[in-house]
Amino acid sequence: GVGGYDPFYLDNPRLKQGKHQTLLKLPSYQISLLPFVRPKRLKEQLNEQFQQMHSWLHPSMTLSKLRNLKADLFGLIDQLPELDAATVACAWAYFERLVIKGAVVKTNRK
Q1: Closest to 94 measured CA to CA, from 58, 69, 60, 62
Q2: Does the pTM exceed 0.85?
Q3: Which InterPro entries would you find in this protein's record (predicted)?
Q4: Distance in angstroms (rounded) separating the CA atoms of residues 95 and 72
Q5: CA 66/CA 79 separation, integer angstroms
Q6: 8 A C-beta contact, residue 18 and residue 42
Q7: pLDDT (tens digit, 0 to 9) for every residue of the chain, 110 residues total?
């Protein structure tokens, strides 16, 4: 609905490749050529793309940091069997809403 939660607004799963690619359009198909990018440089490129897409966010909120926090949070499900996965999912959704509102920065995000 209007103003509803979009789980892909901050962390778009399609954002996995760097910004450099070549698209070849041939008569019956298209080819995307993706050059090899070292993991550190790819991380930098993805964070740059994320910052461009969400320039209003505090610069300390990077895509890689959000993905790491999400992995840590959902990793708790394996460590604490009594923890319900739905509770963790709700916690993440609330955390993302706080990030979007600008209430979370590097100094208070843990």
Answers
A1: 69
A2: no
A3: CABLES1/2
A4: 13
A5: 20
A6: yes
A7: 456 889 999 988 777 655 566 667 778 887 776 667 788 988 898 899 999 999 999 999 999 999 999 999 999 999 998 999 999 999 999 999 999 999 998 888 77
